[in-house]
Amino acid sequence: MKSLDDDVEPKEIPTSPSSTNLKFDSLLELRRILRPDNFESLVYHVTVGNQVVVRGDVSTLVKSILDLLKELVPPTCVTMMPFESTYQESYKCNFLGLSAAAEIPTHVDRNTYVLLDMRYDNDGDLIGNGNLNYEQQLGKFLFFS
């Protein structure tokens, strides 16, 4: 039997966090990278109205994730800031993209947001940038918490 994940086309491997063509095209692709349990938890946070924070240096990737997730709720329930350098409170936006250097203040209740973090190695390459396919590459630098 064919899996839903089988419909996601492989992409070319990104070479650095500054890659401008790096983005997610479907929720299925995001689900495959995050793994089903993490994806379901992320969808839960979206649907109950918690703030969704995606943090990383690739603005196109951050924005593409937020664009996909915002489709899960009615448009009138979406307030998005796609790529900010500082944290914005949840009353200002429920979908927030942050640069990798941005910190979430300690006063923010951990139960009111979900964080999807992207990491890079010291050379600015995506972690694990060896002989991995696109999905393996993305899976090496997306961390869910």
Structural commentary:
- The chain is globular.
- The chain is 28% helix and 16% strand.
- Helix 1 packs across helix 2 (36-48) and helix 1 (27-34) crosses helix 4.
- With 145 residues, the chain is of the alpha/beta class.
- 28% of the residues are buried.
- The chain has a 5-stranded mixed β-sheet.
- The chain has helices at residues 27-34, 36-48, 59-70, 134-141; strands at 51-55, 80-84, 95-98, 113-118, 142-144.
- The model is unreliable at 8-17 and 126-132 (pLDDT under 50).
- It has a single domain (23-144), classed as Rossmann fold (3-Layer(aba) Sandwich), CATH 3.40.50.12430.
- The protein is built from 4 helices and 5 strands.
Short account of what is shown:
The protein has helices spanning 27-34, 36-48, 59-70, 134-141; strands at 51-55, 80-84, 95-98, 113-118, 142-144. By secondary structure, it is of the alpha/beta class. The protein has one domain (23-144): Rossmann fold, CATH 3.40.50.
List the helices and strands and how they pair.
Blueprint: H1 27-34, H2 36-48, E1 51-55, H3 59-70, E2 80-84, E3 95-98, E4 113-118, H4 134-141, E5 142-144
Parallel strand pairs: 1-3, 1-4, 2-3
Antiparallel strand pairs: 4-5
Helix pairs in contact: 1-2, 1-4
Number of domains as seen in the coordinates = 1
Rg over alpha carbons: 15 Å
CATH class: Alpha Beta
Strand order of the largest sheet: 2-3-1-4-5
- Unreliable segments (pLDDT under 50, ≥5 consecutive)? 8-17, 126-132
| Secondary-structure class | alpha/beta
Largest sheet: 5 strands, mixed
**Average pLDDT:** 78
- Give the H and E element order: HHEHEEEHE
Provide the helix percentage.
25-40%
Could you tell me how far the N terminus lies from the C terminus, measured between alpha carbons in angstroms? 32 Å
What's the CATH architecture? 3-Layer(aba) Sandwich
The percentage of residues in β strands lies in 15-25%
Number of β-strand runs? 5
CATH T-level topology: Rossmann fold
* Annotation field: number of helices: 4
